[in-house]
Amino acid sequence: MNQLHDAMINDAFRNQPTDGGFGAFSRRRFLQLAAAGAGAGGLALTLGEFGALAATPLQPGEGVLVVLLLNGANDGLNTVAPIDDGADRSARGVLALNQSEAHRVGNGMALHPNLGALKSRFDRGDVAIVQGVGYQNPSLSHFDSMALWHEGHADARVGVRSDTGWLGRYLDHRGAERDLLDAVVFSSAIPLHLTGREGKAINLRSEDKMEFGVRADADWLRMYDALESMAPPGSPYGPLADALARTTNDSIDLAGRLAPAYEGTTLTGDAVVRDLTQAARLINANVGIRVIGVEAQGYDTHDGQTWRHGRLMSQLDQGIEAFFNELRPQYSPQVSLMTVSEFGRRPEINGAEGTDHGTASVAFVIGQRVKGGLYGEQPSLNNLDSRGNMIPTVDFRSLYATVLGGWLGADDTEVLGANYEQFNLFGASPDAGTVVRGAPNPFAQHGYLIATSAGGVHNFGKHANFGSPWVNDIVAVRRHPTEDGYWAVGSDGECLPSVPPDSLERLALST
Amino acid sequence: MDRIEAIHLVKRTGFGIDWALVDQVEGLSRSAAVSLVTDFSANPDPVAPPGTFDEGGIRWRQINVLQIWWLERMRSTPRPYQEKLVLFWHSHFATSGYTVAFAHQIWTDNQVFRAHSLGSFRDMAQTSALSPAMLLYLDNFRNKASRLNENYGRELLELHLLGPGEHHSELDVIETSRAWTGYNTDSDRRAFVFNAGYHDQGQKTIFGITRNWSGPEVIDEAVYNTHRVVSARYIASKLWSFLAYPNPSAAVVDSIVQPYLDNNLSLAALTRAILLHDEFYSERARTGLVRSPIEWAVSCSRSLGMPASESRPEWATAAMGQNVFYAPDPSGWKQNEVWITSTAAWAKADFARFLIWRAISNGNVTDTADMSVPDAVEFVRLAFGLDVLSNQTRRALEDYVHAERATGIWAQTVNLMTLAMLAPEMQMG
Q1: Do A251 and B349 count as a contact with CB atoms less than 8 A apart?
Q2: Which chain A residues have a beta carbon less than 8 Å from that of B393?
């Protein structure tokens, strides 16, 4: 199994990488070879294949997470409404959903009338609805509350800004070599939740020419080389100039790797539909992406909410459909999509037929491996706080712990700084195979390593339910050629990349 | 003022380096130099482009005309510091063309910032509060006693006056919103009107003081009394971050806040204190800012003598995340790290190629083919206002020209100038 991965590792052990990880070739030389159809080692590689080589392709059983941020605070009460609750109808007034058009999902709850496709997906058992999500002592400031959600740590405090976000820390802790394409986001700035200590997401647009970095005319190749030689650190302009030079240089590499995902038909629909469609194409291109951020705008519905929110719900519905329809079936078991928003909106309608800032809201987790249904408890409308807002029943970090532990196989306690209760909302792991081996992870404080019949080996956080006894011995440990840490190989030939340096002592292993 | 200081001052108070201005400033005292770049008397009076007031026009097209008008003014005005300050205030009192009703409201807002950027912050804040663009953007146009809308009250305190943190309570937000009830627009959303009937005449407790507050009284109370120092430090720190580097020390903020407080919240006194400060000329300041997309695109357009109507920087800067007159959210645009992204890098490369080809077809570009290699690189350095080239950038450019000449490719000037625009030195502020 996994020959590509093995080939990479063998190659890395054999050759000390030279400039920028391109081995013996400069970018220009490599591109020339690729263009001539004669790749390294006698293999003809397309640029796309080269991209896949540069990254770690998605392994069997590895989960991909798409986080759809509903920016501006989505009105949870009109997304999934307690449709028969008199308190809802009286607080909402003209904003209350039409009882006959809303899509009932049980327990007196109903989806917004414009979420018809999502309802079909719910009926197929692919949609988890998590109710009452928020946090204690909520801030009603967009900026403070978004910062807390993005930080996603037990120690997060209102008004105290952090340097890292929860998905960024997940990627830091993933135990694999960081790659530029681990995480991507469709936004003009990189949001905090996708920022880690060792790296952050790169941003993309759903439509891009992808010309600079892809064109391989001789003079363009020389331009790429010139920009590459501006990139080594040490500019008299300091670290910001170094970061700019590095990013310009990275963008050239990335364009080559991403180009295959930009070759599809012209995207149509609203921004969120186009971005989600392109997100699926990126997964289909298998360029190594693990986390994708998508941002939908316009949810701060202080006025004219019936029309505005109705339109947003329709776009959301279309976006989710577009994403799963575009996604190749082979990846469906490995992809989940979740929605988040900085807070909900106040139950009582405001003076402009809109709603002001509230607290608890609803989140969706959607995917083939999701166990559909209602989770959490819908907050009571008869027990509001002093501001007239609902009292959250689910801490948003429980939602994070659920996807970190249950889907991404991460050590959620480590990433979130505390042990949060999880929902058992994934019916199965991302791996299409069954677990054949498992054992406590010798390289981490928590968690298990498992091997599956599909050929994947994963770190499954602290989820004993994924594991069965691990039988392999570690047969070889080699120093990582470029970073601190080691690669370990099991007796069946599996490879665990980037074992942290201190684990050697604990394992009494030698290189 | 030596040449290094002169270059820094001209760079930070403009969009790209105007070498003639550098020559004028060099040798002056710091005080005289700052007075020179702050003397806006030679700048033409702003004249609204045709169609701005046509209320039957297509709004996004009209706003696009305004974008081009303003970007061109940034590029061509003799003392661009004026526009730089307007850009700061456009981000501080952020609004978006997606929500204003008419293009002329954006025009008016722009003139408000220009009129007050060296005036009193209190006057700026009071005028902004009643500007139709702001009334519409933060929903105060329909904030009524019977139906409170907290959007403006919250952002006024958090973003416009005091800054994030624990300077005000949730109660202050609600009561401030009550104080601002009735400050609406007419039914066409065209102009500010005060609807006494919609104003909450009751007692409100704001900053611990209970009385029948009006909206404007909240601003005066915050900036003149209860939060005088908090607000002053917030504004001073933000302007310092825009002109020098982010997150100044408390000592730096103290030293620039004093003249501001002593001169009745004078923004002229505050910005002058920044430009006179030793720390403004420090290594940290000279390496402390990344050019925003607007600054970068206007600098490139200026270097190649390309008017905004032809270079259309607004499309490129939008792709890089800075669409002028369309702030991303009420907190405006951030700085530095947010501009260092792959999307921005691709958009810069696209714009640089587009710009250079347009400039060539206009006959604006001097061919470097007959110059020696070092001369060609030096020519490009000066043309693009690059005060310092790192050794590695200079070597990369020279090696490039050498390699290209060996193959006889004719596009060497085009490509050399593309590389200059994408060099890290050009992307730094």
Answers
A1: yes
A2: 230, 235
The first and second tokens of residue A458, run together, are: 């994963």
Tokens (6 digits) for A502: 């201190």
Closest residue in chain A to residue B148, using alpha carbons only: A351
The pLDDT of residue A9 is 30
Judge if pTM exceeds 0.90. no
Q: What is the ipTM of this complex?
A: 0.95
Strand partners, B204: B211
Q: How far apart are CA B22 and CA B27, in angstroms?
A: 10
Give pLDDT tens digits for B104-137: 999 999 999 999 999 999 999 999 999 999 999 9
- E strands, A91-162, are 103-106, 109-111, 127-134
* Dist CA B88 CA B66 (whole Å): 17
A chain contacts of residue B288, beta-carbon cutoff 8 Å: 238, 240
To the nearest whole angstrom, how far is the Cα of B151 from the nearest Cα of chain A? 7
A205 touches chain B (CB under 8 A): yes
What's the CA gap between A2 and A118, in Å, rounded?
Answer: 36
Name the helix (H) or strand (E) containing A282: helix A271-284
The two three-digit tokens of residue B9, written as one number: 């001052």
Q: SS3 letters for chain B?
A: CCHHHHHHHHHHCCCCCCHHHHHHHCCCCHHHHHHHHCCHHHCCCCCCCCCCCCCCCCHHHHHHHHHHHHHHHHHHCCCCHHHHHHHHHHHHCCCECCCCCCHHHHHHHHHHHHHHCCCEHHHHHHHHHCCHHHHHHCCHHHCCCCCCCCHHHHHHHHHHHCCCCCCCCHHHHHHHHHHCCCEEECCCCCCEEECHHHCCCCCEEECCEEECCCHHHHHHHHHHHHCHHHHHHHHHHHHHHHHCCCCCCHHHHHHHHHHHHHCCCEHHHHHHHHHHCHHHHCHHHHCCCECCHHHHHHHHHHHCCCCHHHHCHHHHHHHCCCCCCECCCCCCCCCHHHHCCHHHHHHHHHHHHHHHHHHHHCCCCCCCCCCCHHHHHHHHHHHCCCCCCCHHHHHHHHHHHHHHHHHCCCCHHHHHHHHHHHCHHHHEC
CA nearest neighbour of A391 among A342, A358, A362: A358
CA distance B418 to B403: 16
Residue A486 pLDDT > 70, yes or no? no
Tell me the C-alpha distance between B230 and B227, whole Å. 5
Interface check for A222 against chain B (CB to CB < 8 A): the answer is yes
Nearest residue to B403 (alpha-carbon basis) of A245, A218, A318, A494: A218
Domain ranges of chain B: 121-288, 293-427
Residue among B400, B291, B301 nearest B352 (CA): B301
What gap in Å lies between CA B45 and CA B39, rounded to an integer?
13
Q: Is B331 on the interface with A (CB under 8 A)?
A: yes
Torsion of CA B335, B336, B340, B346, to 10 degrees: 60
- CB proximity A207 to B under 8 Å: no
Judged by a CB distance cut-off of 8 A, whether residue A247 touches chain B is yes
Residue A348 has pLDDT above 60, yes or no: yes
* B363-402 per-position pLDDT tens digit: 989 999 999 999 999 999 999 999 888 999 999 999 999 9
Residue A110 β-bridge partners? A81, A104
Q: Which residue of B has its CA nearest to A253?
A: B342
Q: Which amino acid is at A453?
A: S
- The answer to whether the CB of B96 falls within 8 A of the CB of B194 is no
